[in-house]
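Cross-posted from the bioinformatics board.
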Amino acid sequence: MARSYNHHEIEDKWSKIWEENPVNEKDESKEKYYCLDMFPYPSGSGLHVGHWRGYVISDVWSRYKLLQGYYVVHPMGWDAFGLPAENFAIKHGIHPRKATDENVANIKKQIKDIAAIYDWDMEINTTDPDFYKWTQWIFVKMFKEGLAYEKEMPINWCPSCKTGLANEEVVGGVCERCGSLATKKNLRQWMLKITAYAERLLNDLDKLDWPEKVKKMQSDWIGKSYGAEIDFQVEGRDEKIKVYTTRPDTLYGSTFMVLAPEHELALQITTNENKEAVEDYIYKASLKSSVDRLQDKEKTGVFTGSYARNPVNNELVPIWISDYVLIDYGTGAIMCVPAHDERDFEFATKFNLPIVQVIAKDGVEIPNLTEAYTEPGIMINSGEFNGMESEKARLELPGLFEERGIGKKTVNYKLRDWVFSRQRYWGEPIPIIHCDHCGVVPVPEEDLPVLLPEVDNYKPTGTGESPLAAVEEWVNTTCPTCGAPAKRETNTMPQWAGSSWYFLRYVDSKNDKELISKEKANKYLPVDMYVGGVEHAVLHLLYSRFYTKFLNDIGVLDFDEPFLKLFNQGMIVKDGAKMSKSKGNVVSPDELVREYGRDSLRLYELFVGPPELDSEWDDRGIDGVYRFIRRVWNLFMDNKDSNIKATPEMIKTRHRMIYEITHRLDNLSLNTVVSGFMEYTNKLVDIANKEKGLDRGTLESMAVLLAPFTPHLAEELWSQLGNTSSVFKEKWPEYDEDKMKETQINIPVQINGKTRAIITVNADSTKEAILVAAKEEVAGRLTGDIVKEIYVPGKIVNIVIK
RNA sequence: GCGGAUGUGGCGGAAUGGCAGACGCAUCAGACUCAAAAUCUGACGGUGGCAACAUCGUGUGGGUUCGACUCCCACCAUCCGCACCA
């Protein structure tokens, strides 16, 4: 009697062996494949089964590539700076340094249970000075290139986290981290000029094998639009107001203008009798949060008392102020065409402003517009352009305006520059020194890193200053240029700084001369496969692309896209909700590993549902894969010594199994890979029972196929078959289509599309023979004239009768 | 409002133009057992029938096709993203 499956014994045995002899040895002779996970922030609450999923997917893929003969770069590290780590530390009264180290140790232990082939020699931690030295170095380089700049401006502010936020971190008006309502705060900020890369970030999306959803989210976020800037002369004054429009074809219908409340000309052009109302409106607008502004459905506004001339028809148009115009998009001022823009229509209706239709469907004017007509059409009431197609005018008029000196052709982006400073302790200090004589001076590269000082009080101040501002002995320094007393910049970098480039450092993590050597960068990068959640679509994934392009521009890298292929795994949900401590629906992997083993949990993580979709966790589901593993074990134990010659059925089944598993795996349809294994195991058990044994070739192929999924089991089965080297030294099995063919096939016979019988015929039967056999089989049902006979080779017969 | 995804048994899901419900969970019945657990075997969409079988059935309504879960049109529901971007 063969011994029964014992996951403790098998998994302990092989994890020890792999510890000493890693299966994924660095081998310069092999082609590389870089498979990367989005690295975790060590948050303290540990991993749940949802975190496991992504790591299992990437490990299966890595081991598959390994078996295909690649040297697989598969590293892991810690994104340990930033708010989550700091908030955890504050809550538990432990210094962030200590809390982070403890959490890393804890999560690392949990991650090792996944049994992924991570190369721990590459491990990095963003809070390690040897790492953040280079995070700071990139900032200094950006500063020198004019891409990092200081600006005082109203930025998004989270009153709970007590720090400024980037646009990307404000989701639906609330702080992405804690859910508090974001407000505006006027602060001196460090900004990164990501907008300088808008065009490349947009165009290069075409190069990427990424989910369309993510590409679309990025391209919408960048938000490119084509249009024109047009100058309106303010009547009786010197100033001109520049507007941006994507609808130059509607210029003749512009009957008023609106400036954003923050527009620099707003007060200047206001007449004395309107001054009080305008000042009041601007003040009230300044108090509104972005959510308030969003939620006010009703348009508000105030008249400045001034007018401007529409440059094409010389009409005088009133200039209004309203907060539906945003200061940071376009020019902060718009020309309003109420007949063809919903918002302008609403505003004009409310304040009784004239509405002039200039685009009409088929050139027929609608007598009384009840809503804006936003479709294309034929231009009317537009002087020399009457009769022109509006779509054509849209493209051609900007150039024409440019020739006539009333505007210019232009493009606009929704993307804003990146607010890069945080008023928090636990981040990379921004390596800048403020000198009264020399101004803003970057810390010399040889003086990096600027170490984050140890402090007692690291709680956020809420004043707009970082807690670092209170550390006098650290703040006070000397100017590297003139030697005079100077002060350090006290803001820190956002969480995203380290994660924007960490994937480069893994392959050269101990280099103290360079961020990464050119040689290693070219050898191991870019990343071939990146696995992670979709939540970073316009955050980390956009920032990383920006950093990579910058590093490419300054010659550090020879490539300009970091991640060639992206896979977004779905979330694991429990009781219909994302797992979270507060909901009390967290499933911990630790107990499951103890009870069922790593291999079973790995397999269930895949079997739970299609990997790209959210899946409901079923506590009982793991029993099914555990039973399956035991069935595989018994199949091998019962037959490993049978020494029988492969029957045609065994050969066919083996090749079909290889074919099915390989194809499903190539398509990353990992849940059906698992069900495929179950099907073929059931089939092989039947065959083995019938034939009193199973051939060695089939068992060997199956062990190798299983290796990426259940590595401990596969190694043990492989060694039970008498092999002395690791199963991971094997090659992924190949199939032969000729050997998969059936000699007999089942053909359903339909009458008028309904299956009435199934006939079994030789696979090489002719169409005629099959049709004859089919008609014989269903002769009793052929009660009418046969209109048509359809035979789809190898698939189906359909007889149409009347 | 705009954009995207999803919709199939009690449940997770499979099938991308060709036998709908693979595979698994749960359930029920049987075997083993003094008994239970574990394990094994079988049944398992609805309706009618002792049965073979018939009939309906993939969110709803239409359409294309010999044939539709699959393709097209319209709609409904749920989830996600964006949201006054001129």
